[in-house]
Amino acid sequence: MAEAHQAVAFQFTVTPEGLDFHLSREAVRQLYLAAISSWKKRLVRAKNSFLTGVYPASPSSWMVVVMATAGSCYCQVDPSLGLIGRIQHCLPHSDMLTPQARMVVSTVLFSTGAWLAAVLLFRRVLRILLSYHGWMFEPHGHMSRSTRLWVALMKIMSIRKPLLYSFQSSLPKLPVPPVKATITRYLESVRPLLDDDKYEEMAALAKEFQEKTAPRLQRYLLLKSWWTTNYVSDWWEEYVYLRGRSPLMVNSNYYAMDFLYVTPTHIQAARAANAVHSILLYRRRLDRGEIPPMMALGVVPMCSYQSERMFNTTRIPGKETDTLLHLPDSKHLAVYHKGRYYKVWLYYGGKILPPADLELQFQRILDDPSAPQPGEERLAALTAGERVPWAEARTRFFSRSPNKTSLEAIERAAFFLTLDEEEHGQEPGTPGCMDAYAKSLLHGRCYDRWFDKSFTLVVYKNGKVGANAEHSWADAPIVGHLWEFMLATDKFQLGYTEGGHCKGDPNRQLAPPQRLQWDIPPEGIAAIEGSLRVARALADDVDFCCFPFTTFGKGLIKRCRTSPDAFIQISLQLAHFRDKGSFCLTYEASMTRLFREGRTETVRSCTAEATAFVRSMADPRHSRSERQKLFKAAAEKHQQLYRLAMTGSGIDRHLFCLYLMSRYLGTQSPFLARV
Hints:
One of its GO terms (cellular component) is mitochondrial outer membrane. GO terms for molecular function: carnitine O-palmitoyltransferase activity. It catalyses: (R)-carnitine + hexadecanoyl-CoA = O-hexadecanoyl-(R)-carnitine + CoA. Keywords: Acyltransferase, Fatty acid metabolism, Lipid metabolism, Membrane, Mitochondrion, Mitochondrion outer membrane, Transferase, Transmembrane, Transmembrane helix, Transport. The protein has four domains: 53 residues, no CATH class; 99 residues, no CATH class; 175 residues, Chloramphenicol acetyltransferase-like domain (Chloramphenicol Acetyltransferase), CATH 3.30.559; 284 residues, Choline/Carnitine o-acyltransferase, domain 2 (Chloramphenicol Acetyltransferase). Helices cover 50% and strands 10% of the residues. The chain contains 23 helices and 17 strands. Strands 3-14-13-12-8-9-15 form a seven-stranded mixed sheet, with helices on both faces. Strands 1-2 form a two-stranded antiparallel sheet. It has a two-stranded antiparallel ribbon with strand order 4-5. The longest helix is centred in the first third of the chain and has 32 residues. 34% of the residues are buried.
């Protein structure tokens, strides 16, 4: 209990003489250091907000403008055309302000105003430059003069090293496509799937919609696009993700895998410690804005908005719609092992715990012989089942302590860690090992992942790692950036000792992990078991085949002057046709992060060109050269659709918003109902 008492700043006892206070110097010192760390973080965020707000200018440029203006005035050259004199005349008269001081103040005020005007002008120019997307539609390896000039101007405007969010307010808004273009592309996408009669029926409905209903809906949608940052993203997050009542597990959440052929250490606690420490380093860089924004061609920034909710975020269930709980900071981690939940502090003395200390804490959890409390082991099954029962159980059984306190410890954690009892990974010569690895990360045992957390880090008994991520707060590339950083930092920067442990000596005076306490009644346990049955039925229905493909890669495809993405999508069409003997609507996600708060758009890869090529592969009368021409046409069509989607000219998000607008306005549309 000595370590536990150190966590209390002061204690008191009641004596006949009164209250007897006992201060803990170490606890007070930790509180002081934590406060210093918190204020440093606030100052860094304030500084980054200012630097981001004036980008591409810098604070030093303000000083240059002030000095240049002052120098001009000293040389009796007035660059303000009389404005400095007017400002000086408007300043309040005071004995403390001498004529020279009034001149200095008015010069600084004019210089500041001129500098701010220049900042606004530069940011406007930057937004205009970022609205140019002609470079995407030019042949690979060829660049027009206009694009060369655009690249040169972009390099000049972004010559100062940007922070993560430097370009955010300069990114253009996602445009609302014309209704006519959307309907034309929609009819083109369904033509390979419909016979003549059904196509004519759909075309007639589309024409009626375009002429009668669409103009009104489009006007309201344009109005929404003017007063919101992105006319799609808020509705997409709410209606596609948060209002979904089906289980998140399998249906929405996705996973990430470890290195296939390398395992830095087989010691579970050590691998977990290095992984957690690496993730915390990434979070610190994220908070400071030190991570450079993703850039296309090295000059085109992508929206970084989704990174804001990577940590300290949990999806809270509701009866009609869920909500996202995001905290500015969190200093602890929620850990699950053998049916028990723990709270592990991540900071000591205002600093991130080093890997050796984290390994000590995780090893204490692994060595804990205590048994789960009633209902504790399968508690997370509530997050794996239907959302409404989880919302009802949360309100009924987790609104009072100790359950409320323990649930808040999980939901307010930086992220969730599972110390898994199983062993998984790529094992050459073992059939089905990758299938089991993927299924474990996708759904596990249905109660050993907290599917509501922004992501769950899974560390297996043999040292392999993986992750399960919730989808509403961001798309997979955002987690991919974190995952690549974690793997690289773990392997190449932190490293391990020869024995496989983390480097450094642990601080054995650290308070041990805090075991979370639960008092779940029999009715609550019944609700947990009900969600578990639903989740297990869903998990058992998953047929997963995962294997490494080593015959060739994207290098060979590129040497054939073909887009690897187009190659894969056309291959999927061919494989599906050979298996089913028919075609179907196919969804490929394309990103729209060239626009502010952009997420994804749909690329309908089952095109007329793709189906023509697939049919030629089944027809022996077609020669090799004819099939090559058809394949080239299909690949070019797919690339065209992908570029249109990336530049805001996709059809599905536009139709989605038109449909929602019709529901809000109470407008009936047979066309939108069929779409």
